[in-house]
Amino acid sequence: MNFLEERIKKDGIVKPGNVLKVDSFLNHQMDIALLNEIGREFHRRFADKPITKVLTIEASGIAIAYPVANEFGVPLVFAKKSKSVNIEGDMYVAEVESFTHKNKNQVIVSKKFLSAEDHVLIIDDFLANGCALQGLISIAEGAGATIEGLGIAVEKGFQIGGRVIRNLGYRLESLAIVDAMDAETGEITFRAQ
Amino acid sequence: MNFLEERIKKDGIVKPGNVLKVDSFLNHQMDIALLNEIGREFHRRFADKPITKVLTIEASGIAIAYPVANEFGVPLVFAKKSKSVNIEGDMYVAEVESFTHKNKNQVIVSKKFLSAEDHVLIIDDFLANGCALQGLISIAEGAGATIEGLGIAVEKGFQIGGRVIRNLGYRLESLAIVDAMDAETGEITFRAQ
């Protein structure tokens, strides 16, 4: 087990309905030392890529993406979720349909901050059905940027998102892939990587 | 002028209606080196305080609070904005009325992550009417925590928020206080501190 899998095993809480709570260290209260370690690990994994921007989505994605951008020494851009159709200024917009919530949201990034010259590393904390990540890919592709890879802290391997994105040919690195969870025993099974 | 005032002068854009755009370096695209400097500055200003938690609010607050929590070596907790009245679990809730948008929002933090033992530093990127900050204060007070201070990157000194919070007796440190802006000339007047 790597450092993140160990931490999930120690402090993650399995709830009925395949819910994994990591809110004591990853996405509500944040352990900065752990996040800094995540930043170093993604930097190590994508060190061969000429990254110019780290792209994430609000809100909890920002805390994972910060240390990654810090390691690469590049700007961090975060996409905003918006329900409004009235976007002021010049924005890249992706319509994202939520598999879970059965509704549509817009994900927006100002055109000032992504261009065809950019080599983008997309970062987020969680990957399940991949709706948010597909929106970020759509925005980066729309900008003509090169997507050098995607880095996820926790992937739910039994949901469709990871498979879809790998099938599309993107290099997706998840630090922990949860293949099964048992709410009765609290047991979490990680995919061997 | 300090480093943040200089950067605002260089890259901030004044728009009609007293709008100050700092989205190229502070709250949409983020200059991580600048944010790290902000983290060091708040650490210097509150070094005499026994901070145990940094508290902020999603989304852009997270990127300011991250380097501050990193400097203090303490966890970062971010409050979530919620429109729903149906809060699952045990949450501190503040009802926040937006002066600008004339609507009410809830700001929530899990009770697991704030307690009477905590010494809290509240951090946010912007202070105008102070609605969000008042919600964070209400939550920290509700937890019985000690609010050691509040740190803001950019305060609009001509709006009411800063005065209200200082009048309440809190120690509020804003790295840049904008006292006036001119959309015609682009000129920004900072308060001497």
Structure description:
Two copies of one chain form a homodimer. The first copy, chain A, is of the alpha/beta class and 193 residues long. An eight-stranded mixed β-sheet of chain A has the order 6-7-5-4-8-9-10-11, with helices on both faces. In chain A, strands 1-2 form a two-stranded antiparallel ribbon. In chain A, strand 1 and strand 2 form a beta hairpin. In chain A, helix 2 packs across helix 3. The longest helix of chain A is centred in the first third of the chain and has 14 residues. The radius of gyration of chain A is 16 Å and the shape is globular. At the A-B interface, strand 3, helix 2, helix 3 and strand 5 of A face strand 3, helix 2, helix 3 and strand 5 of B. Strand 3 of chain A pairs antiparallel with strand 5 of chain B.
The number of helical segments of chain A is: 5
pLDDT under 50 segments of chain A (min length 5)?
A: none
| Largest sheet: number of strands, sense, barrel closure of chain A | 8 strands, mixed
How are the strands of the largest sheet of chain A arranged? 6-7-5-4-8-9-10-11
Distance between the termini of chain A: 9 Å
Q: What is the average per-residue confidence, as pLDDT of chain A, rounded to a whole number?
A: 94
Outline of chain A, from the CA principal axes? globular
